[in-house]
Write a structure and sequence with these properties.
The structure holds two protein chains of two kinds. Chain A is an alpha/beta fold. Chain A is built from seven helices and ten strands. The longest helix of chain A is centred in the C-terminal third of the chain and has 18 residues. The two termini of chain A are 15 Å apart. Chain B starts with a helix and ends with a helix. Classes of the chains: A alpha/beta, B alpha+beta. At the A-B interface, helix 2 and helix 3 of A face helix 1, helix 12 and helix 16 of B. The structure holds adenosine-5'-triphosphate and magnesium ion. The site of magnesium ion has 4 residues of chain A, from helix 1.
Chain lengths: 232, 423
């Protein structure tokens, strides 16, 4: 396995203005992630998991400290560079609203490739590959509302994976899913992690997900309280 | 990418239907108003031109200054020569001499005693020469109620109401008592060949149409004429051309020291038609402004609501790596497509109804009381403008509405948009 460092978090803090004062959502975070990790931020609601994923994904700015993602400082990044980073290197999977309702499964998965200006032939091949990985070849023409929750999440995984990003950030990907579906998508992600060496970073408090993780970072009140490598 | 967004618009009824309906309605109204007002105003102008002003009119300067008094003592002289000259100079225009006259029409009984009489407003036109276009221009055949069009210089047409009042039928004699060009009294007998309906109260009360050669004789106006009316060959008034021709004509023919020298006056400077022309020129602009304003506000609010509904989509697209500016532009592109669809549909609907209205709504019943010089039929007229005018408010309003709504979305922080995903 390749040991390249892809995320370095240095002294990260995040404060949100609330009312007259400030609320500290993250403080004094120092972490490093290497390519190919299958890691998770685990902690109770409000512990800062989503906040951290957002900052790593350049969707939000650090208040203090910095995150270096693929050699780029998130603190100094301009919006143009940030979207380019997301477009080329990061796949997102969200808890809810993962799919654009007016588009078919195929079109939703195709969208990141349109942004990357890939040719029609390249797009077609990549979309079909991605749908194959998640086992949804038979739902190509379906609209999101015709899918079950698990199928929607699998489309979201396909969409995050279709451009073969270095990093996938997945925020509670198994929320609202039953056991069987949860295991199915987790198996899919493990497979992709192995086959493509894609780094996965989860935010979760779901035990089903935690069982799959190679590294568990526990957050409490915005602080890292544990960081354990799980040998399997 | 564009195809991707078009697909989105077509599938997302909520996104497209309201704005398309708003634009379609707005555009339909704008285009209908445009064709309708063009028709109505166009008819007024046309009626005035045919009946009274021509597209341009040549008169003596003094006559022009006192035009409302029909001052035939100030008529143009040696008009045979002048007509030749004008016709040579503007061969693609149609020129007709006319004499307006007033007087008393007296209807005698079989003993020659006055049976009835009334004041008459007369117009002398060329009716009997072979190549006269005036009969057709004034639509006399169709306006005829009884009898026929004069064939001799001593025959006249009377307004039907006037004839009824005077108890005269075609074939009867009337005496016109007026004054000659030199101020002497003139008493001439004419035979009424037919009666007509003008559709204009002032003329129906006492109108009389005579052949110009007969009137010349009666009023001692040999080789003289009150007015020479000029018409463009396509029969439609072109304001700029009329002004240009008049200015040029006046440079050559007018002599400011000679009040009898001819002057050419464009239609806009007669019968207050200038302000009507200006109104026609500006109503499109005013209408477009009002509709852009009103529709923009509706679409702005619609866009904001639509945008709220689509925050999730926006956040997702941002996260996937689309740039904010790109999303904003894609919203504008969507609105342009919606604007085009709405404008096409609206224009098509309006043109359909306009084409029905081209035949006109007959208002003759309603118009009885009006003394305006207009045809009693209100009709729409489809000009080339009708095909594109709706697109101006249609497109502008969607773009402005979406741009304003988009700014609201654009201003939001990326993270806030993104937050909506978790909600
Ligand atoms: N924009 C914001 N303004 C103010 N406070 C915020 C904002 N975003 C997050 N917070 C606060 O920061 C804390 C961490 O939020 P975060 O969403 O990261 O929690 P989380 O660990 O993802 O929780 P959950 O498991 O419920 O998703 C919470 O207390 C939240 O209220
Ligand atoms: Mg969260």
């Amino acid at each position: 396995m390749n040991n390249k460092t892809i995320i370095t978090i240095n002294n990260l803090a995040k404060r949100f203005p609330i009312g007259g004062g400030e609320f500290t959502a993250l403080k004094n975070i120092n972490l490093k992630f290497e390519a190919g990790e299958f890691a998770g931020l685990v902690g109770p609601s409000g512990s800062g998991k989503t906040t951290m994923l957002n900052i790593i994904g350049s969707l939000d700015n650090p208040s203090d400290g910095d995150v270096t993602l693929l050699g780029t400082s998130i603190k100094k990044i301009n919006p143009k560079r940030a979207s380019s980073l997301r477009k080329h290197h990061i796949g997102f999977i969200f808890q809810t609203y993962n799919l654009m309702p007016v588009y078919t499964v195929y079109e939703n998965v195709e969208f990141p490739l349109l942004l990357l200006k890939k040719s029609a032939a390249e797009r077609r091949k990549a979309v079909l590959d991605a749908l194959e990985w998640v086992g949804l070849m038979d739902k190509i023409k379906s609209k999101p509302k015709q899918l079950s929750g698990g199928e929607s999440q699998r489309v979201a995984i396909a969409r995050a994976m279709v451009k073969r990003p270095e990093l996938v950030l997945a925020d509670e990907p198994t929320a609202n899913l039953d056991k069987e579906n949860s295991y199915h998508i987790l198996d899919t992600m493990v497979k992709l992690n192995k086959e493509l060496n894609t780094t996965f970073l989860f935010a979760t408090h779901d035990d089903k997900v935690i069982k799959y993780l190679n590294r568990i970072i526990r957050l409490e009140d915005g602080k890292v309280v544990a960081d354990d490598i799980i040998k399997k | 990418m564009l195809k991707f967004f078009i697909r989105g618009i077509l599938r997302d009824r909520q996104r497209s239907l309201l704005p398309i309906i708003v634009i379609t309605i707005g555009v339909t109204i704008v285009v209908l108003l445009q064709t309708y007002l063009t028709g109505v105003f166009g008819d007024m102008i046309d009626f005035n031109a045919k009946f009274s002003t021509g597209h341009v009119k040549v008169m003596s300067q003094a006559y022009y200054e006192n035009m409302d008094q029909i001052p035939n003592d100030l008529a143009l002289l040696e008009t045979g020569e002048l007509m030749n000259e004008i016709q040579k100079q503007y061969p693609d225009m149609n020129w007709s001499e006319r004499i307006s006259f007033g007087g008393l029409v007296d209807a005698p009984d079989e003993n020659g005693e006055t049976k009835a009489q009334g004041p008459a407003a007369g117009m002398a036109i060329d009716m009997i020469s072979e190549n006269s276009v005036e009969i057709e221009r004034l639509n006399l055949e169709k306006s005829l109620v009884k009898g026929e069009i004069p064939k001799n210089s001593n025959e006249v047409l009377l307004s039907d109401d006037f004839a009824t009042k005077l108890k005269i039928s075609p074939g009867d004699q009337v005496t016109l008592i007026g004054s000659t060009m030199y101020g002497a009294m003139s008493i001439t007998n004419f035979t009424v060949s037919g009666t007509i309906k003008f559709g204009v109260m002032a003329l129906d009360r006492g109108g009389i149409i005579a052949d110009i050669s007969g009137v010349r004789e009666a009023l001692d106006m040999q080789d003289a004429t009150g007015e020479i009316l000029g018409y463009f060959s396509d029969n439609s008034y072109d304001d700029l051309k009329a002004i240009e021709i008049s200015t040029y004509f006046n440079e050559i023919h007018s002599d400011s020291t000679d009040v009898f020298s001819p002057t050419m006056v464009p239609l806009r400077e007669m019968n207050n038609l200038g302000s009507m022309l200006d109104l026609i020129g500006s109503f499109s602009g005013i209408m477009i402004f009002i509709f852009v304003f009103a529709m923009s506000i509706v679409l702005w609010n619609g866009g904001l609501l639509g945008g709220l509904r689509r925050y999730g989509e926006m956040g997702l697209r941002l996260a996937i790596g689309e740039r904010k500016g790109h999303i904003y532009r894609s919203l504008i592109s969507e609105s342009i497509i919606i604007g085009i669809i709405g404008s096409i549909v609206g224009t098509a609907i309006a043109l359909f109804f306009s084409s029905l209205l081209e035949k006109g709504i007959d208002m003759s019943g309603v118009m009885q009381e009006s003394s305006m010089m207009m045809s009693p039929v209100f009709r729409a007229e489809i000009t080339p403008t009708a095909y594109y005018i709706g697109f101006i408010p249609g497109l502008l309003a969607t773009i402005v509405g979406t741009a304003l709504a988009g700014i609201g979305i654009y201003k939001r922080q990326t993270a806030e948009l993104f937050k909506e995903l978790g909600a």
